Amino acid sequence: MGHLHRGGVLAAALALLLTTTTAAAAAPAAAAADRYRNPVSAGFADTFADPVVVRGDDGLWYAFGTSDPLREGERQAHRVPIARSADLVDWTYVGDAFAPDQRPSFAAPGAAFWAPDVRRIGDRWVMYVTVTDTTVSGDTFDTAIGAATAPTPAGPWTFADSPVVAPRPGGGGGYLWTIDPSQFTDVDGRSYLYFGSYYGGISVTELTPDGLHAVGTPSLVAIDNKFEGGYVLRHDGWYWLFASTANCCAGPATGYSVQVGRARDPRGPFVDRDGQRLDVSRAGGTPVLTQNGNRWIGTGHNAVLTDLSGQDWIAYHAIDRADPYLDEPFGINERPMLLDRLDWVDGWPTVNAGAGPSEDARPAPVTTGRVDARFDTADLGGWRGGTGHWRVTGGVLAGTGTLTARAGLGGDVRAEADLRLAGADTAGLRLGRVDVTVGGGRLTARESGGATASVPLPAGLDLTDRHNLAVEIRDRRLVAELSPARLGDQLAVVALTLTRPAAGPLALRADGGPAEFDNVSAAALYRPVRHTVAPPRVGPVLAGYSDEFTGGLDPAWQWIRPNPAATVTGGALRWPVESTDLVGTGNTAGVLLRDAPAGDYVAETKVTLDLGEDVVRNYQQAGLVAYVDDDRFARLAQVAIWNTRQVEYGYELPFAGRPVYGGSIVGTPATTTWLRLAHHVDRATGEHEFRAASSRDGTHWTWGAVWTFPADTTPRIGLVAHGGATPAVTAEFDYLRFYR
């Protein structure tokens, strides 16, 4: 998303004078880098927020970002900057999608363009983009979703002159946040657009076949006041909604993160791993990506892409906590583009096996293979004689019959090609003894002398438009898919169990007429990760530091701003929620603290707080706190945020002369919620790292973000209950335990 925070638009405004450059000539294909290091956008930009990445018809990768200046000191926003890469690691800026005076007629003169999403629909590329200010009203944030089309990802881009989704008046005043678009095409050929943010939630609407107009009534798929930045793909028969949560742009306190839910229908309902829906007051969300204590915080607004080995990757932005702003403090948040491996473990996605964002050197994506044919020249030296006639024209290979690659294949493999039926009845790939073809309204896999599997293509699918056919074979299990542009939006998926390994050459085939092929590749199939990294270890109870609240308040407790209404009775600390706060400069809330043990430990409490559901009770909360002073703390609490009930892991620190507050979201609260803070001292820096977790039953835990404290501080652990006294509610803490 753009520069938003809960409740409004960040004060920093985009400059009105914008620049553009002409797209440079295509970069030559390069050998894949062996290793890479984040941020991958460093070569051309200091900030490149809300990224989306596609593979173009030329075989190169294109990234698009939100309208911001690219470099510190530049102070002029680019109107959807575009970068290009041959290997997903080294990127070059190639221009802006839109010229300074280019806008659709419904956009106000000062409108900015945020959070682009780029897809192939039919024979062209379509960009969906947030238009921040329209002519609908005098409101400067009456947002809409616009669209532009182009023959290539590099442009030229031409706006459609009416919005895909028009501004939507909000019931609470102003306009719902109609931002953060993401398009998805389903196996029945229907096209959908996901859009929205905190004020209004994330909705989905069906689109017309050209992708330029919404039809029907939108459906809410993720609740307001928690989610934004939706991105949907189809994997293993499920529809997966990735969404970002918490605050995108709080500088050094940004706790943005990515969560996910899945559904059997693109309209939902989406549920998390614990079965909690994303569209209800106590909304669920399984963590996919969250900060881990290294330099990167605010890890969010993602897209997903697949390399040539079949490995999925997540592109997203993050903030370097040591350099959180592009220029002066409290201006534009500096959010470069990062890339990390996306693993599917036990059927659920997680980044780097659950380790989170990387800052060290990592194995790079696979962007070349044993077969790697872009057909940039007429040379077919990598291919040997087949049947029929084949030639390269206009950067594509066209022919009929069969053409075989000289490179042999063996073992687990992924092969793919962009193809177009230009008169052929069927066309596709042959891997050894297996043919995978499209045509006749079907996607078919056939093993010579073995079985055949076939599935229908969407009715009316035009195979004279370019599509991507990808085939993976692992342990004699073949899975093939046809998609518009290899972005997890499959039009058809077929699976076949082979009787023997599919060793042999890769061949292209076209029957009954000519077909066109481009970007043909074959690479060793990626090795899937089977296990996630272990969560923090919870050892024996440290009785000397713990309190079960069985005999009054232990003398080891220390009050900051004592509250005599907080008493120990009936085996619990009962604390009426105060009409106070700890955020900002007011610092009126009571805090009940204990000294923590040295070294690594886990602090845990069980808190019951009846906040009801759906109604607004801002911001009543109760929970754990790691506390240095009133301007440096990390607070883990179940809290009412407008109509939602969330577990917020808030963080405040002093920065540039004033306290800065942000937060992350960790799990889903129940009326009784268990909370943990796992403390670890970083051996290299001496920093105190606190990782948060929550549970609805005390047994199954959701682990989330890490906040850090300087090495020269001594954080204590305590309890809080504040945020509002109306309606009256009492927090009940069963214990505070420390575990080694």
From TrEMBL:
InterPro entries for the chain: ConA-like_dom_sf, GH43_arabinanases, Glyco_hydro_43, Glyco_hydro_beta-prop_sf, TAT_signal
Protein keywords: Glycosidase, Hydrolase, Signal
Signal peptide positions on this chain: 1-25
Domain of life of the native organism: Bacteria
Keyword Transit peptide included in the entry's annotation: no
Gene Ontology molecular functions: hydrolase activity, hydrolyzing O-glycosyl compounds
Keyword Signal part of the UniProt annotation: yes
Pathway involvement of the protein, from the record: Glycan metabolism; L-arabinan degradation
Active-site residues per Swiss-Prot or TrEMBL entry: 50 (proton acceptor), 228 (proton donor)
One of the GO biological process terms: carbohydrate metabolic process
Site (Important for catalytic activity, responsible for pKa modulation of the active site Glu and correct orientation of both the proton donor and substrate): 180
Family per record: Belongs to the glycosyl hydrolase 43 family.
Name recorded for this polypeptide: Family 43 glycosylhydrolase
